[in-house]
Amino acid sequence: MDGTENLSIRLTIQNNMNNNLSGNMAGRRLTVMVSTLVWLLMVAQAQAATGVDRLDKYFQDYSRQYFGDKLDWRLFKAQGLVESQLNHKARSHRGAQGVMQLMPATYREIQKKNSEFRGREMHSLDTNIAAGICFNAYLYDRWDREVTPETRIRLMLASYNGGYVRVLRAFNKAGQPENDWPAIARHLPRETRRYVERVLHRFKAERAREAPRMPASPRPQLASK
To answer: Rounded to an integer, what distance in angstroms lies between the CA atom of residue 179 and that of residue 177?
Structure first.
């Protein structure tokens, strides 16, 4: 075997070694990239879960504060989902702000009736949720009439969206029986009717999503026992 053949063999071996080394390095880089992506995904999921848990706690605490055990806190979370997708930075073209999309004028009224909100900013996450649920409680109390619990909740939600006076007019126009929500809804704007059904739909979805982690309820209901 002459020198030329030896050189050719050595070059072939060296190329194979270089190729193997490059392949191993590329494989290691790919492994590192995949591991990094998996880690980043886990961090993002953990942060998202923490954010959701924090919001859930606000809804739980303020629902208990203003409603006791009358209503399920998920109803107000569903309302926040419909209002803003739980985005505390949301702002409508009309000026409504925060998770619960409160109007500044509405918040000023809440502040007048509740000293606990004085000096607190409406756009603050926990304050906005607290004020929204507090306003719901005010509307709920105003609908303390001879109606079913389900109709009362619909009237509360409709008032939150369309205003108490407008809903009261629809209620009076509907006449008897007062528990006939479809009869009342016929006199409400389409936006308000859709709003009520969207909130209740999201509420049912939230309850269904939590069902595997919750003890079975004797019967489905809007108001918790």
So the answer is: 5
- 56-213 belongs to which CATH class? mainly alpha
- Asked if the bond preceding 177 is cis, omega within 30° of 0, the reply is yes
Q: Taking a C-beta distance cutoff of 8 angstroms, is the pair 99, 81 a contact?
A: no
Give Cα 130 distance to the centre of its chain: 14
Give me the torsion for CA of 125, 127, 128, 132, rounded to 10°. 140
- Delimit the domains of the chain by residue range: 56-213
Q: Looking at the predicted structure, is the pLDDT value of residue 10 above 90?
A: no
Phi, psi dihedral angles at 97 (to 5 degrees): -130, 155
- Note the pLDDT tens digit of each residue in 98-131: 999 999 999 999 999 999 999 999 999 999 999 9
CA atoms within 13 A on the CB side of 130: 17
CA terminus-to-terminus distance, the chain: 95
pTM score over 0.85: no
